[in-house]
Amino acid sequence: MPGGATSGTATLITSLPYNDADTVPTTAGLWYRYTAPASGIPNAISVFAYAATLSNQRLRVFSPDAVTAYPASDPGNWVNSRPLQIMLEAGVTYYLNVYNQTGAYTLSVIAGPNDFVPVGALLVPNDVPNYPAAILSATDGHVLRFIHPFPSGETADVGASGPTTGRILAHSRNFFQDPLGPQTGGDGHLKLYSAQFELLADLPYIPLGDSFTAPIRWGRTSGLFYVMQATDPLNGGDGSVTTVTADGAFGPTTWNLSNTWNVASIAPSGSETILYGARNTFGTINTLAQWDLVNNVALPDLAPAVSSFRIQDLLVLGDDTILVAYVWFVANHTPILRRYAPDGTLLNTYTLTGSQSTEVRLARALNDPVSFWVWTRTNATESLSGPTTLNKFSNLQADDGTILLTFSQPQFTHGGYQGAKSATPLARFGAAESCPFLILREEIPPAAPIEPPEPPPMPPACVHACVVTDPAPISGGGQGCRAPDAPAVECD
To answer: Going edge to edge, which strands form the sheet with 11-13?
Structure first.
C-alpha cells in the first residue's frame, strides 16, 4: 500500500514482514506507521527504504508521535538507502518518514530476532546512549537477540567462575564524542546484571560531567570485579581502584594510585596480588605497569613501551600469562597482540592480519587459558564492498596464535547499517562499533510474551442471610440463604 502523504494519513503497517514500492512526490516524503505488539515481541524491527537511482533518499523515525525524534537523545538519526534497526516498546507507535528526494523507492520492514542464546554467545554493548546491546552467534556473528535497555559505554566484564559466574558488570558512560557530536545519555553508574540480564545493583561511581570510562576486569580468585576511576576527586584527581562483589556492593578496599600511575586499562593477576595497568608515559598509554595490591605501592614496569604503538586492552589468562593489545598511533595499520609471562618474559607476538583497527578488545574464552577472543575492525580488502566497515571476531589459540575461528559482520552505528549502499545489504541487524565484548556463560531462552494484566476480581454477589435451624451442615445454602462458610455481603 502506498505511503501516506502526511503523518496524519500514514499508512498503517499491520503485520511483518512488510513490503511496499512507491514514489516520493515531494521532498517532504511519505509516511508509514507501526505499533509494536503489546506482547513485546518483537522488541526490534529493521526498516530498509531503498532508492536505487537517488543519491540521498533518507529515512527517519519519530515516536511516540510524528514530531518527536526517536530516540529523543539522537535527533540526527537517519539513514540513506540503508537498513535501520529500531528498538521497540510494547504498545508504542513509531512513525517512519521516507523523504528528502523525489523518486521511486522500495520499503521493507522485518521483525528483529528472538532466538535461543547458547552458552558461549557474544555480547556486544552499544557505545551510543539509548541503543541496545546485541547478542551474537559465536559461529558466524549474526544477531540472536537484542537486550534493551542496557548501559552504553566502553567497559564491561563477565564472571567466568565461582559466585559471579555469568554475572555482568557494566559502566554506563556519562557521555562520549562521536562524528555526530557529543552524546549525553549515561549516568556514570556501575550496573550489575544476572546472567539473564536482570538488574541486580546500580552503583553511583563516576561523577556526572566526567567523560572518562571506568575500566572493569573480573578477578579469578575472589570473583570480585575490579574497577578503576581515572580521576577520583577523593584522591586529589588521581586514579583509584576498588572492587564490586557478586551481590553488587563495593568491596572494603580502595587503592589510591599515585599521580605517576596514570593508566587506562587494568587487569588483576590470577592471585589478585598484582594489578596490571596500561600506563601513560610521555603522553601515550604504552607501558605495561604493575601495582602491588597487598602493599598498595607501585612496582617496576613489567614491560616497556613498544615503539609507535599504544596499549588498547589487557587480559590475564587462566595460566597467569598477560595478553596485551597494541594498536598503531594512526588508522590503517595492523594491530598486534603480545603475551607476557608474569616475570615479564615475552612469550608470543601475534599480528592481527586483515584488520585496520585503532581499537582492539580482548575477551575470555570458555576454554581459558587454551584460547581467547579478540575484536577488531577489518580493512578495505576484507570489507567486500569498499566503504563497508565490519566487526571482526576471532578465537585464537593462546600458545601460538592459531586462528581457531573467525567471522565478520557489518557494523550498525546509531542503528544504521555501516555498509555500502546496496539493494542486498550484508545484514539487516548487527552490533555497534563498540569496545567491550563478553562471552556469555549461561544459556538464555527466547523472550516470553508480556502477559496482559489480569482483570480485577468481580465483586462478590450479595446474599441474604437466613436463620439456620437444621443442625446439619449446609454446604450450598438454600434460596435466600448462604453457606455457613461463605462471607456475608450486605445487599443495598
So the answer is: 11-13, 30-35, 93-99, 58-62, 78-80
Phi, psi of 163 (to 5 degrees): -65, -20
Pairwise CA distance, residues 58 & 201, whole Å? 41
- From edge to edge, which strands make up the β-sheet containing 168-171? 156-158, 168-171, 190-193, 199-203
Cell numbers placing 453 = 494484566
Closest listed residue to residue 415, CA positions, set 80, 77, 72 = 77
Tell me the one-letter amino acid at 223: G
C-alpha closest to that of 445 among 237, 165, 145, 85: 145
Which amino acid is located at 6 in the chain?
T
What's the CA gap between 376 and 91, in Å, rounded?
38
Q: Which domain-ending residue is among 65, 85, 111?
A: 111
DSSP letters along 226-280, please? EEEETT-GGGTTS-EEEEE-TTS-B-S--EEPPTT--EEEEEE-TTSSEEEEEEE
- Tell whether the model's pLDDT for residue 487 goes beyond 50: yes
d(CA 126, CA 481): 66
Residue 64: give the domain boundaries. Answer: 7-111
> Containing H/E element for 350?
strand 346-351
Rounded Cα distance between 77 and 70, Å, is 8
C-alpha 258/C-alpha 235 separation (Å) is: 9
Give whole-number Cα distances, 315 to 242, 273, 284, 337, 377, in Å: 18, 15, 20, 11, 19
Percent of the chain whose pLDDT exceeds 70 = 86
How large is the average pLDDT for residues 148-157?
93
Helix (H) or strand (E) run with residue 445 in it: none
DSSP 162-201: GGGBT-EEEE--SEEEETTEEEE---S-EEEE-TT--EEE
413 neighbors 77 (Cβ within 8 angstroms): no
CB atoms within 10 A of CB 306: 16
451 belongs to a structural domain: no
The verdict on 130 and 104 lying in the same domain is no
**CA 312 → CA 193, 450, 486, distances in Å?**
25, 41, 72
pLDDT at 484 over 60: no
- Answer whether residue 460 shows pLDDT above 70: no
State the cell numbers at 112.
528483529
Domain containing residue 233: CATH number: 2.120.10.30
Residue 117 forms part of a structural domain: no
Max distance between CA atoms of the chain, in angstroms, equals 103
pLDDT of 354-386, one tens digit each? Answer: 777 778 999 999 999 999 999 998 765 555 455
